[in-house]
């Protein structure tokens, strides 16, 4: 199979890190430990596993952090090398069981107890919280938080990988491939929005308007539509998309504090607001955005880390002094949804994050965030585009395996025709032979 493989090479990793800092995110790929190669498809780890041919696979901010040499060393023990990146995947699931046909699915990439063949499952997985699985470095698979960071499974930046049945969600026939590839990032946003426990009466800030920020905005407006949302967006096209997705006010990041002060009727002490927003969703995860969140959140407010942070230096005195809650949100699993009209004694209902994400992608038309797609052969261009998506007027960049699939299908058809022609020449009982020789 053809795949982009990330290998262990400290010198190449360091060189990519320096290059990305000097000339921009995604620009150090040609010097880094990622290479395009022909390699053996991963073996099926056991029962319940199937082969999947990716159709589209997105390039995520966490992928860029890894390729740029910016990801936290915390993850060192939660990945296995060499791995094929790519966890935002829509693909064709191949099932050779009798009566089972190919299916178009999106992949829930978290690798929990079911995928690792742990019985009994850990307490978190039993509750549907697979993102908090206790066994991410153990079991039948190599270490790996997700598909795309695990040597045993492969990843979406390839022509083939293996997935467990529990990871697969069927894509409705009406949904385009571009919409389907947005389901995984939308699920992350849904999980974050629900973790914020919004009641609709609050002022929320969404800091960052890339894929994750725009999806989080859409999720807030879908799940708690009365919430007032202020968005910090750096680029014009991001501001336009944020407005279209329901933001009440969109400003550039440097104007967030002033806008939050006006909307909340706050005073300010130095850079910190005396009232501020009830909740801040940090969809970037940098020292700058976290500092901004601490300046604009109200006392006893909440800061939700949606974007993956690395090692940052931030003054936490306001967190302590103002009794602010800092909450991390990772991936997806099963959500507890509050219902206005429930049976006695039942205040919430359980729902798969991915089911909610399918609804969000459809209702908010999130397929429009897919700005460009590239074949694997142009991975350097694709990753550079993803690294500078904002400044180039783009949002989501993805790898597109459809041309390769069409090419393989064409070759199969030609081989089939050649085989049929050969059979017709050698078998006097065929219809063609009879037609040629009446």
What does this structure look like?
With 438 residues, the chain is of the alpha/beta class. 33% of the residues lie in helices and 21% in strands. The protein contains 15 helices and 19 strands. Strands 3, 4, 5, 6, 7, 18 and 19 form a 7-stranded mixed sheet that branches. Strands 10-9-8-13-14-15 form a 6-stranded parallel sheet, with helices on both faces. A hairpin with an 8-residue loop joins strand 4 and strand 5. The longest helix has 25 residues.
Summarize the entry for a quick read:
With 438 residues, the protein is α/β, with parallel strands linked by helices. 33% of the residues lie in helices and 21% in strands.
Number of helices: 15
State the helicity in percent bands: 25-40%
The share of residues in extended strands comes to 15-25%
Could you report the average pLDDT, rounded to the nearest whole number?
90
Shape: globular
The computed structural class is alpha/beta
Which segments are poorly predicted (pLDDT under 50) over 5 or more consecutive residues?
A: 423-438
Number of strands: 19
Calculate the terminal CA-CA distance, rounded to whole Å.
46 Å
- Largest sheet report: 7 strands, mixed
Radius of gyration from the CA trace? 24 Å
